Amino acid sequence: AAAREASADKKSLGKEAQEALLARRYGRRHLHIREQDDLEQRVRQILDEDLDSFCWSLDFGEDFIIRLFTRGFLPICSSTKLRSGRTVYVLLPKLHRQRSVLRQLHELHVDKGARKRSKRYRLTVDSAFERVVAGCIEQHGESWLWPPMRRALSSAFR
């Protein structure tokens, strides 16, 4: 298998060749999803076949990223090296089977100390996207915010 991967990597680095190499790497439990896929059907497949929560894709289109978010996926990005040494960025959408949700906020108790500390903070939405991304990278490194993911998120949320 390693010889086939090395040979295929040398011959062609087109999307189809990369997908074939990555399909062997990720195996059957990690579902390969594409931009044109019916994501509702893929969610059902993941749950029905008890597949791993992480899927993989080479598609980073803005519409695809938005569709993933709206179907319950949390997309992150990873970098991997092919045998040739070429770096490939892979989208790793994760479908969380359980989520934390605050319900009945009117029953939520916030103690006095938390209220006092909260006055030091301010919550804004969509006001400093680039600064937030830069801060994440500064604190954690590129980790899941590799260039194709940053471009996709930046396009999607402008």
Automatic annotation (TrEMBL):
<dbReference type="InterPro" id="IPR042203">
    <property type="entry name" value="Leu/Phe-tRNA_Trfase_C"/>
</dbReference>
<keyword id="KW-0963">Cytoplasm</keyword>
<dbReference type="GO" id="GO:0008914">
    <property type="term" value="F:leucyl-tRNA--protein transferase activity"/>
</dbReference>
<dbReference type="GO" id="GO:0005737">
    <property type="term" value="C:cytoplasm"/>
</dbReference>
<protein>
    <submittedName>
        <fullName>Uncharacterized protein</fullName>
    </submittedName>
</protein>
<keyword id="KW-0808">Transferase</keyword>
<dbReference type="InterPro" id="IPR004616">
    <property type="entry name" value="Leu/Phe-tRNA_Trfase"/>
</dbReference>
<dbReference type="InterPro" id="IPR016181">
    <property type="entry name" value="Acyl_CoA_acyltransferase"/>
</dbReference>
<dbReference type="Pfam" id="PF03588">
    <property type="entry name" value="Leu_Phe_trans"/>
</dbReference>
<dbReference type="GO" id="GO:0030163">
    <property type="term" value="P:protein catabolic process"/>
</dbReference>
<keyword id="KW-0012">Acyltransferase</keyword>
